[in-house]
């Protein structure tokens, strides 16, 4: 199976989610050095567990995948289902869009992929 969640390049997403979890716990649950070389699906699963443990649920995710190639439309449904399963949310709570840089920079030269994620979380009362 294609490493669908790996395709998205979630490093930036994880770094910011880690800051959120660490903020909630007032301690260093995760550090950037402890997540080095960890598969993103495993890391996402652990972060979701910590988020739920702190009393929050994912409301929705808005994901922009910035890549020249491959075109995201071909993989969108698989990526969506993979992330929904890991996050234990409905695929309807996730919006995925593919964008290009119009052949500019390292992404345009097909040497990199970027990802922007906005995660809306709600307090589970």
Task: Explain what the structure shows.
The protein has 125 residues and is an alpha+beta fold. It has a single domain (4-123), classed as 60s Ribosomal Protein L30, Chain: A (2-Layer Sandwich). It has helices at 4-7, 11-25, 40-53, 76-87, 105-108; strands at 56-66, 94-99, 114-123. Helix 2 runs parallel beside helix 3. Mean pLDDT is 77; it is low at 1-9.
The neighbouring-strand order within the major sheet is 2-1-3
From the alpha carbons, calculate the radius of gyration and give it in angstroms: 15 Å
CATH class: Alpha Beta
CATH-assigned fold name: 60s Ribosomal Protein L30, Chain: A
Classify the oligomer.
Answer: single chain
Main attributes of the structure:
125 residues, three-stranded mixed β-sheet, 60s Ribosomal Protein L30, Chain: A, disordered N terminus, alpha+beta, 39% helix
Task: Produce the secondary structure layout.
Elements: H1 4-7, H2 11-25, H3 40-53, E1 56-66, H4 76-87, E2 94-99, H5 105-108, E3 114-123
Parallel strand pairs: 1-2
Antiparallel strand pairs: 1-3
Put the structure in a nutshell:
By secondary structure, this protein is an alpha+beta fold. It has one domain: 60s Ribosomal Protein L30, Chain: A (2-Layer Sandwich), CATH 3.30.1330.50.
């Amino acid at each position: 199976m294609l490493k669908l969640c790996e395709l998205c390049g979630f490093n930036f997403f994880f770094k910011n989610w880690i800051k959120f979890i660490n903020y909630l716990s007032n301690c260093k649950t995760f550090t950037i050095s402890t997540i080095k070389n960890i598969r993103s699906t495993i890391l996402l699963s652990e972060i979701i567990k910590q988020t739920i443990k702190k009393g929050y649920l994912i409301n929705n995710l808005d994901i922009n995948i910035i890549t020249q190639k491959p075109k995201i439309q071909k993989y969108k449904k698989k990526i969506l289902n993979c992330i929904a399963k890991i996050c234990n949310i409905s695929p309807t709570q996730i919006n995925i869009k593919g964008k290009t840089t119009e052949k500019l920079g390292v992404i345009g030269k097909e040497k990199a992929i970027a990802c922007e994620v906005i995660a809306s979380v709600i307090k589970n009362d």
